[in-house]
Structure formats: structure tokens, C-alpha cells
Amino acid sequence: MCLGIPMRVVKINGDFAQVESARLLRNVNIQMLPGIKTGDYLLVHAGFAIQKVDPERARETLRIVDEIR
Amino acid sequence: MKYVDEFRNARLVHKLAARIKAINPGHNLNIMEVCGTHTQNFCRFGLAKLLPKNIRLISGPGCPVCVSPQGYIDTAIELAKNKDLLIVTFGDMLAVPGSCSSLEKERAKLGNVRVVYSPLDALSIARANPGKKIVFLAVGFETTAPAIALSILEAKKEKLKNIFFLLSLKLIPAAMRYLLLDKRIRIDGFLCPGHVAAVMGTKEYAFVPKKYKIPCCVAGFEPVDILESIYMILEQLALGKAGVANQYTRVVTATGNLKAQGIIRRVFRTADSEWRGLGIIAQSGLELKNEFSDFDASRIFPAASPRVKIKAAGQCRCSDVLKGLILPLGCPLFAKKCQPEHPLGPCMVSGEGACNAYYKFRQQV
Lengths: 69, 365
Description:
The complex is a heterodimer of chains A (69) and B (365). With 69 residues, chain A is of the alpha+beta class. Chain A has one helix spanning 55-67, and strands at 7-13, 16-21, 24-29, 41-45, 48-52. A six-stranded mixed β-sheet of chain B has the order 4-3-5-6-11-10, sandwiched between helices. A five-stranded parallel β-sheet of chain B has the order 2-1-7-8-9. With 365 residues, chain B is α/β, with parallel strands linked by helices. Classes of the chains: A alpha+beta (69), B alpha/beta (365). At the A-B interface, strand 4, strand 5 and helix 1 of A face helix 1, helix 6, helix 7, helix 9 and helix 11 of B.
């Protein structure tokens, strides 16, 4: 259920957004996430976007792991 | 795929595995995850092979289908025998064995069980079938609760009169507290569920290190995430500290998604709830507030009466698997009488069940 594949916002249409991942397009409800923009990556659960992926934090996690000796 | 491939990078995975080896204290450690997707990915990516033998990842009650009690499954199956109803469910529920049948078997008879991906699909079915009563099997944790709540709010707004929700919505911290009080279970650290925390925040787990001095780490789901989280727990153990670390910072904050939490509070109140294997846990579930009781399937339709249990299931040890008392391999039915094609317990059915994951990826574990 907790599919962790972030999907990119292609178009916003009121309470819904069209999102894309690996050429799969879906319409998801975005009522839980105010202020999202086209190009944002969202985590989607049961047809609802539950959180936005923070690109800065994602880079930071990878950098910290890479710097481990 | 962005934010997936980078976190499956083999070089980083091996780097973390080496780091874990270097910090390994040597004695036996049990790290428990309470999310079925952690179980699934841990098995799928063969991460057990990268961990030192003394560090065990054990599964807890993190699969929503598995923790729904037998009475709930039996009630759903009874409702599916009524030709005036349409049962709408997530796919995982279909093959879960009831006391005498399953939703899959009932579907073959009357054809009135439908599988959907989202509760919003249940609303579409209700709109398209005004002459039928629709019952949605609302099973899940805090990640699913706001989706169910928004669907109920929408149904109310549209004045839909033919949709009802049979709730089995549960709260993870309450189950963790229950496990911590059971002295038979030794837990040295918790991997906390990333997407429950995406909604509820990391703050919900603060009681674990504070009261029980056990380190936690909120973890993402890719191999780099899971291994880094295990490393972050070992690091706390090495320093003799216990706190709630957050590995999944790209998605999870201390406070979570406040809007989603507000939506949950608008529709539900917390209540005592029954978990398979764990029994009734105080304030561990969600029920509808009075103003939404018209949508409560348990109020409108009677619960199934308890039946004689099917014979083979007597040996089923799902309850002990859910408590982390045994690994799936410790159940006498595992991979013998109980397989995904003919499951005897829910942990073998659901894609998030520990037995299902251990069976599917048994070469890797």
C-alpha cells in the first residue's frame, strides 16, 4: 500500500492534479497538499497526494551517505 | 525513476553495509519495522544478506489487512452474500480467509465484490449504481485515514445516500506501545513507518525513547533508506542514546501534514480497537463522529456472528508473526499448507504481509 514512487505534477485542475511517473499518467486528489506547483514530486497513496518530496533534502541524504567512510 | 533509482544505487548500498559491519556491536539485536512495505522491500532487495547475522529485522503489526480481526473479515464476507449490496475493497482483502469463506469465493457466486485503488472509486460506483447499497471496506493506518475521511466528506457534500464505510482504521503508535509492554518480545530499535510519519510527523514516536529508552528511526522505503536507518539505530545504540532519528527527511517532518491531520480529526474520533493477534488496544483505532454515522456500515448492517474456525488455520501463527514473536519461517504451515495461492492466514495473502514477503523472496532471505 505504501508505494513510495514519487510522481511529477504535470497539470493542476482544482482539487486534482495530473501526475506522471514512468510514462504512467494518473489523476490524484491534492486537497491535503495546498500550494503545490507543476514540476513538484508528490507521494501518492490511494489516489491522494499525502506529501511533497523536498529535492534539497533528497540530495542531502544522498550526499551524507556518499561521504560515509 | 527520480527519487527511486538514486536510492537503489548499489555503490551506496554496499557502503552502508560496510558501515553497519564496522559499527556492529556483535551481540544479538532485534530491530522491528512496523510497516508492511519495509518488510516487503527488505526481502525483495535481499538486504538480510547484507546485514551481519546478529542483526535481525523483525516484522511487527504493519500490514493493515493482516491486523484486521477475524470478525471484521467475516462481517465483510457476510455482507457480500447480500445481493442488494456491492462490496468495494482494496485488492489485498479478496483472498483473506474468513471462518468459512472469502470475499473471492463470494465474488465468484454473486459477482458483487469490486476491487478499487482509491476510496474515491467507491464514490464513483455509488453514483453509477443508485439502486444498490455500496459498502467500502475502509482498512488502513494513518496514511489511509485522511483519504477515507475526504471521501466521506465528499459523499456528505454530494448527499450520497447509498454508500457506507466498514471501518478498520488503526493507529500505529498504540500498537507499538502494546508491543513494548509485552515482556516476551525483545525490541532493540524501531524502524518507524515513513508514510504514516509523512502524515503524522516524527513527534508521535517520541514516547518510545523517552519512556522505554529504545531508539527509533523514521525510514524511507528504498534499500539505501532502509540500510541508512538501521545504521542510524546502531549509531544511537553505540552512543548509548535513544531518540527519534529521521532518515526520510525528503518526505517527513517533525509535525507531518497538518492539513491531513485536521481532516482526520474532522471526521473521526479515536476509539478502542481490536487487532488480530494483539486483541483490543485502548484508543488504537478510529471511528466516525456522530455527524457522519449515516455512513457507518457497522451501524446499518449487523456484524457476522462468530463461526467455527476452519481446521487447518488452527495451526496458523499469524498472531505471533504480527507480534514479532516468530519469523514466518517459524510457522509450521509456512510454504507447506499455506502459500499465496491457497493462504490460511492473512499474512500470506497481503502483499504487505510478512509471510507473503518471505515466501515470494525466500531465495533472498
